[in-house]
Specification:
The protein is α+β, with helices and mostly antiparallel strands. The protein has 12 helices and 20 strands. A hairpin with a 4-residue loop joins strand 4 and strand 5. The structure holds flavin-adenine dinucleotide. The site of flavin-adenine dinucleotide has 32 residues, from strand 2, helix 2 and strand 9.
Length: 435
């Protein structure tokens, strides 16, 4: 098995045949069995895997086709990464209108999971900024799908469509202007979940970017304590500030056991919470480390050891979010199986364009759990029941284990979506949640 065909959580592991695609692709190669596009493997579970089948590796499809520095329209092949795009457009005063927490994802991957960022409440998902793309099907047919002309539904099926409707060969994106490379950032330490919700509500009106880190092991009156971050682009010209130094450290190898465990998690969470003695701190930050804080550490996923880890991301609707998030955090804190990265954020009301897009109004919670065996799976099953009872949904891009009931209940359009699936395309995730 090739390490580079894994998903980011390194769980589950799967055997694949790998076929690399290159730029100016006009037809899919002949493939025995089923195929699935594979971008840069930054999905955590099995939505980018096709066990026993073929992965169509798209990183070679990385050509820029056109960029208009006046309108901010960019056309590029689907294997270009967000980092590639930023390198081209940021020096010209443009940026991605929506970016996930890493720039190491491809345009095709960002479309297929309709990814979101810290400004969801203002700008929606990645798919809201896709103007058009080309879809190549296994029967050799090609169609250009446009956001503003989607009578047949191919655009809505492919945005958030988990790579199953065909291969996106190129996409046209509408970028956004930025005044420079800096952000004005305010970090506010908060002591409870109630404080998070009131900070979030107020900040959504005043700030473009909002997100909170929470101490997922805090209990009692401190339940849900953390740091709330809100930020806006600073009014500076790009050329006035130097580009951020990008230190590339890397985990050189996989340690024999997870470095994230009960011994390290509790002190980390407590220290991280108290790292900022003042309740409020304002700073000016370079936008790259702000948006993609872990990109400077290569292969950081290796620190979870050979068994890998599971990311858990859910969204709970506004009416049930406060009680639901409290119930989730209580169960996690009781179990002692915490996470370094526990992120809480409120989504806005903009309806997603994709039939299977994850973002919807409400509060989203994301956590990483080391794969410590049955205990973690039992915990996640309990969390699923809380999410289900609250009318919430789990994020396929982060998932390796949700039940078919959990998926079908939270994604009621899945059967209508099925008619858009390319008959030769499949994934481990899709078979698990539908068969
Ligand atoms: C550190 C980190 C932070 C993250 N933060 C966020 C976040 O803030 N918000 C968020 O939404 N997500 C986040 N993610 C998840 C990530 O953005 C998504 O999983 C993304 O889809 C990964 O893109 P990829 O190019 O690596 O694609 P892969 O993971 O390889 O594949 C993802 C899906 O895209 C499909 N696909 C890939 N290329 C094509 C193509 N050309 N045509 C059709 N289908 C294709 C695949 O079949 C698969 O279904 C994060 C991931 C990491 C590792």
């Amino acid at each position: 098995m090739r390490d580079d065909g894994d998903s980011w959580g390194r769980y589950p592991r799967a055997e694949h045949t790998h076929v690399s695609l290159h730029d100016r692709l006009h037809a899919l190669p002949e493939i025995a069995g089923s195929a699935l596009p594979y971008g840069n493997g930054r999905s955590y579970g099995d939505s980018c895997q096709n066990p026993g089948g073929t992965l169509l590796r798209t990183r070679g499809l990385d050509r820029f086709i056109a960029f208009d520095p006046v309108s901010g329209r960019l056309q590029c092949e689907a294997g270009a990464t967000l980092e590639d795009i930023i390198s081209l457009v940021l020096p010209q005063g443009w940026f991605l209108p929506v970016t996930p927490g890493t720039s190491q994802v491809t345009v095709g991957g960002a479309i297929a999971n309709d990814v979101h960022g810290k400004n969801h409440h203002r700008c929606g998902n990645f798919g809201h900024h896709v103007v058009a793309f080309e879809l190549l099907r296994s029967d050799g047919s090609r169609r250009v799908c446009r956001a503003d002309d989607d009578a047949e539904g191919w655009f809505a099926a492919t945005v958030g469509g988990l790579g199953l409707t065909g291969l996106v060969t190129w996409a046209e994106l509408q970028l956004r202007r930025v005044p420079g490379t800096s952000l004005e950032v305010e970090n506010i330490r908060f002591g409870s979940l109630a404080e998070f919700f009131s900070l979030s509500e107020a900040s959504a009106l005043t700030h473009e970017y909002t997100v909170a880190w929470i101490d997922c092991l805090a209990r009692g009156r401190s339940l849900g304590r953390g740091h709330f971050t809100r930020a806006d682009h600073a009014a500076q010209r790009a050329e006035e500030r130097p580009t951020a130094p990008r230190r590339r450290l890397a985990m050189p190898l996989t340690p024999p056991i997870s470095l994230v465990n009960r011994l390290t998690l509790r002190p980390f969470n407590a220290l991280y919470y108290w790292r900022q003695p003042a309740r409020r701190k304002r700073s000016v930050a370079h936008l790259l480390p702000f948006f993609h804080p872990l990109d400077s550490i290569g292969h950081w996923n290796r620190m979870y050891g050979p068994a890998g880890f599971l990311q858990y991301q859910c969204v709970l609707p506004p009416a049930t979010a406060a009680d639901g998030v409290a119930a989730l955090l209580q169960d996690i804190a009781r179990s002692g199986q915490g996470s370094f990265l526990a992120v809480l954020k409120q989504f806005g009301d903009t309806p997603s364009r994709g039939m299977l897009s994850f973002p919807r109004p409400g509060t989203t919670l994301a956590l990483d759990f080391p794969n410590s065996g049955p205990a973690v799976f039992q915990l996640l099953d309990r969390l699923d029941r809380i999410v289900d009872a609250a009318g919430g949904a789990l994020y396929p891009a982060k998932d390796a284990r949700m039940s078919s009931h959990a998926f079908q209940h939270a994604y009621p359009h899945w059967q209508a979506f099925s008619r858009f699936i390319d008959p030769r395309f499949s994934s481990g995730f899709w078979r698990r949640v539908t068969e």
